[in-house]
Amino acid sequence: MNKKAKQLADQRVRKAYDLTSPELATEDDVRRLFTSYARSLEDLAASGMDISKGQFLNPMQFSSIMRLVTEERSNLFKEMQMFKRFDVNNNASINEAEFIEGWYKLSKDEGHGDYLFNIKKLVGDNNILL
To answer: From CA 122, how far away is CA 31, in angstroms rounded?
Structure first.
């Protein structure tokens, strides 16, 4: 991002959304984003982890999603801090429930719906990049 674009982005006023607004991502929208990037836990079975079934995101998959949703680039430290925040059971992967809860909690904590708006825009337009 060039300097002028960054200045404009920094000056942008965040719209205060009601988290139930139809302009924002629903749980199904967030789930759809998750499943677009998630891997099967079968991939971890070979490592000897005690797993049953389901899907997960590893740190790099989560980082890719963070960059799309937050529209920020190249801040791996912040992305890994966010990964740790979303990974509530501390198993080095994010499951679907953690992912959905994490985005809603983050939006509520930061007091704006920009991230949920961006998720809605991504999945609503079928713009998800794999």
So the answer is: 12
22-124, what's its fold?
Answer: Recoverin; domain 1 (1.10.238)
* 3 state DSSP class of 14: coil
CA distance 118 to 113: 9
Give the separation between CA 119 and CA 83, rounded to whole angstroms.
17
Q: Taking the model in full, what pTM does it have?
A: 0.73
* Confidence at residue 75, expressed as pLDDT on a 0 to 100 scale: 87
Residue positions counted in the chain: 130
Of residues 55 and 40, which shows the higher confidence score? 55
Q: If we measure between CA atoms, which residue out of 65, 55, 59, 63 comes closest to residue 25?
A: 65
User: For residue 68, which of 36, 28, 21, 112 has the smallest C-alpha distance?
Assistant: 36
